[in-house]
Amino acid sequence: MKFVDEAIVTIRSGSGGAGCVSFRRERFIEKGGPDGGDGGDGGDVILRVDPSKRTLYEYRRQKRLSAKNGASGLGRQKHGKNGSHCILTLPPGTIVFDAQTSQVIADLTDPDKEIVVAQGGMGGRGNKRFASSTNRVPRFAQPGIPGVEMKLRLELKLMADVGLVGLPNAGKSTLISAMSAARPKIADYPFTTLNPTIGMVEAPFGEPFAVADIPGLIEGAHEGVGLGIKFLKHIERTGILVHLIDSGDIDPENPLAQFQLINNELSMHSDTLANKTQVVVLNKLDLTGTKNRVEAFKDALPDQTIFTISAATGEGVKPLIKHLAQLLQALAPEDK
């Protein structure tokens, strides 16, 4: 159920600057000694973990990234300026592969960790460095060492930011289709979703976030009944749970029956799930006869913010996405 976000980028470290061939030019001194300075070192390509990032979104657009070359040395023994580094800021959980060999270069998990993945070339030495008792006027200098170019495959493995939970046929697959570009199988019978689906949702602000549609939960799921049990342990790592309820199935005499059943399964599985931030969403408002059922549910849960939507028509989906984006931004890093 891990969401895998990938990007391939070509990176290149900076080349070292060339050493300088230069001689002193002083008044009344016809042939001064060598004074060529060294070239500057090329910039490194550095991988840096940034806990505030959740996706590799920006690197799908940037296909080539380069550090700056070192500047050439100058006369009067002036050292060339070093090239600036190229820093790739990546979310925790990013695995970096050599795209040619598939060898793992780095597994970035620690916050604020930095790794030099391609070192810049060393600057060449100026002719001042080559002066000796046998060669007082060297007319040569070293060129800079070229930078390193390689292709990296970035793979992010993480749990979704938001998990959709509810009874089978509550409309989770339809909702994830309405929120994202994911296209899970949708049909009007239980257990259409046999495998989790991850969709990336474009938020109105901030980075996109990942939403997981897991198979519907039924009574006894925590004991292995139904299809949802093997996924319960995975949604422990989501930041938020969207509790989706089919408003057409709400019993006006016992409006919280579905809501309490699912919450019982979550709490029986683990305290972690029981204490997750939860957004309650009543779906299928497009069906006739749901108004009274929705009101009965709201009356039975007066202190809970409840979203009412129709995933099929898109009604109410945008405000829900905005609310989820706000909640994700407010979550502490350890809760995400």
From TrEMBL:
<comment type="similarity">
    <text>Belongs to the TRAFAC class OBG-HflX-like GTPase superfamily. OBG GTPase family.</text>
</comment>
<dbReference type="InterPro" id="IPR006169">
    <property type="entry name" value="GTP1_OBG_dom"/>
</dbReference>
<feature type="binding site">
    <location>
        <begin position="191"/>
        <end position="195"/>
    </location>
    <ligand>
        <name>GTP</name>
    </ligand>
</feature>
<keyword id="KW-0378">Hydrolase</keyword>
<feature type="binding site">
    <location>
        <position position="173"/>
    </location>
    <ligand>
        <name>Mg(2+)</name>
    </ligand>
</feature>
<dbReference type="GO" id="GO:0003924">
    <property type="term" value="F:GTPase activity"/>
</dbReference>
<comment type="function">
    <text>An essential GTPase which binds GTP, GDP and possibly (p)ppGpp with moderate affinity, with high nucleotide exchange rates and a fairly low GTP hydrolysis rate. Plays a role in control of the cell cycle, stress response, ribosome biogenesis and in those bacteria that undergo differentiation, in morphogenesis control.</text>
</comment>
<keyword id="KW-0547">Nucleotide-binding</keyword>
<dbReference type="InterPro" id="IPR036726">
    <property type="entry name" value="GTP1_OBG_dom_sf"/>
</dbReference>
<feature type="binding site">
    <location>
        <begin position="310"/>
        <end position="312"/>
    </location>
    <ligand>
        <name>GTP</name>
    </ligand>
</feature>
<dbReference type="GO" id="GO:0042254">
    <property type="term" value="P:ribosome biogenesis"/>
</dbReference>
<feature type="domain" description="OBG-type G">
    <location>
        <begin position="160"/>
        <end position="329"/>
    </location>
</feature>
<dbReference type="GO" id="GO:0005525">
    <property type="term" value="F:GTP binding"/>
</dbReference>
<dbReference type="InterPro" id="IPR031167">
    <property type="entry name" value="G_OBG"/>
</dbReference>
<keyword id="KW-0460">Magnesium</keyword>
<dbReference type="InterPro" id="IPR045086">
    <property type="entry name" value="OBG_GTPase"/>
</dbReference>
<dbReference type="InterPro" id="IPR006073">
    <property type="entry name" value="GTP-bd"/>
</dbReference>
<keyword id="KW-0963">Cytoplasm</keyword>
<dbReference type="InterPro" id="IPR027417">
    <property type="entry name" value="P-loop_NTPase"/>
</dbReference>
<dbReference type="Pfam" id="PF01926">
    <property type="entry name" value="MMR_HSR1"/>
</dbReference>
<dbReference type="InterPro" id="IPR006074">
    <property type="entry name" value="GTP1-OBG_CS"/>
</dbReference>
<protein>
    <recommendedName>
        <fullName>GTPase Obg</fullName>
        <ecNumber>3.6.5.-</ecNumber>
    </recommendedName>
</protein>
<feature type="binding site">
    <location>
        <begin position="166"/>
        <end position="173"/>
    </location>
    <ligand>
        <name>GTP</name>
    </ligand>
</feature>
<feature type="domain" description="Obg">
    <location>
        <begin position="1"/>
        <end position="159"/>
    </location>
</feature>
<keyword id="KW-0479">Metal-binding</keyword>
<dbReference type="Pfam" id="PF01018">
    <property type="entry name" value="GTP1_OBG"/>
</dbReference>
<dbReference type="GO" id="GO:0005737">
    <property type="term" value="C:cytoplasm"/>
</dbReference>
<comment type="subunit">
    <text>Monomer.</text>
</comment>
<dbReference type="GO" id="GO:0000287">
    <property type="term" value="F:magnesium ion binding"/>
</dbReference>
<dbReference type="InterPro" id="IPR014100">
    <property type="entry name" value="GTP-bd_Obg/CgtA"/>
</dbReference>
<feature type="binding site">
    <location>
        <begin position="283"/>
        <end position="286"/>
    </location>
    <ligand>
        <name>GTP</name>
    </ligand>
</feature>
<feature type="binding site">
    <location>
        <position position="193"/>
    </location>
    <ligand>
        <name>Mg(2+)</name>
    </ligand>
</feature>
<keyword id="KW-0342">GTP-binding</keyword>
<dbReference type="GO" id="GO:0043022">
    <property type="term" value="F:ribosome binding"/>
</dbReference>
<feature type="binding site">
    <location>
        <begin position="213"/>
        <end position="216"/>
    </location>
    <ligand>
        <name>GTP</name>
    </ligand>
</feature>
